[in-house]
Amino acid sequence: MSNLSPKLRRLDEKLGKLDALLLSELDGLLAGVIVSPDFIPPSEWLPCIWDGGPHTSGPVFKNDADIQETINLVMYHYNQIIADLEKGRYVPIFDGFEDDDDFIMWERWACGFMTAIRLRPKSWQTYVHSRDEDISTAAAILMTLGNIADEGDNIENPALAHLDDEAPDLIPSAVLALHGARMKSQENPFAKPQQAHASKVGRNEPCPCGSGKKYKKCCGLN
């Protein structure tokens, strides 16, 4: 991740301090949300970024400015992905060693993508059972990679062993294929992903950390 823009480096730093998703996982989550068959509002997927499970208390922000900057950076990346997809390109953020370009850890990206799928599992069957072979294949590839990454084990099935090496090339083309399918959809009024803008979090609004509490009684207390 040596070619990150200043804003993405800042976002990476923010995520690390919050003990949230890694930048690669966030990139996968956002890509999955954007190409989802159904529109998923930020209020649903933002909590996924810092939801560490039932034994965590959520993110701890320093103050209002801290939470606002973090959300602004997340939405900036969300909008950048949409802009890139509309131009027919997508460059996923993978982990790896900066001194070894041949070692790419795609698994964390895939875990993030699977998080997005779980927000609308039934809707994703639209892609899986699509009559368009390119779409069904793209969905199958991404879901298979996500399941492999979730298991956290080496790929022992000989029929899937090739995916480990091919994943970095398969992922961007599969995401682009699903974006194309979403753009062609006429049934959903939200079919075309809309760029979003982060507004200032009101003190009486639900906290973006996903706790269910009002912001002033949650992260706004810090």
Q: Can you tell me about this structure?
A:
The protein has 222 residues and is mainly alpha-helical. The chain has eight helices and two strands, in the order H-H-H-H-E-E-H-H-H-H. The protein has one domain: Four Helix Bundle (Hemerythrin (Met), subunit A) (Up-down Bundle). A two-stranded antiparallel sheet has the order 1-2. Strand 1 (95-97) and strand 2 (100-105) form a beta hairpin.
Core attributes:
two-stranded antiparallel ribbon; 222 residues; mainly alpha; 8 helices; 4% strand; Four Helix Bundle (Hemerythrin (Met), subunit A)
Q: How are the SSEs ordered, and which strands pair?
A:
Layout lengths: L5 H13 L4 H13 L6 H9 L13 H23 L8 E3 L2 E6 L1 H13 L5 H4 L4 H19 L10 H23 L38
Antiparallel strand pairs: 1-2
Q: What's the number of helices?
A: 8
Average pLDDT rating: 83
Beta-strand segment tally? 2
CATH-derived architecture: Up-down Bundle
- Secondary structure: helix percent: 40-55%
Distance between the termini: 32 Å
Note the main sheet. 2 strands, antiparallel
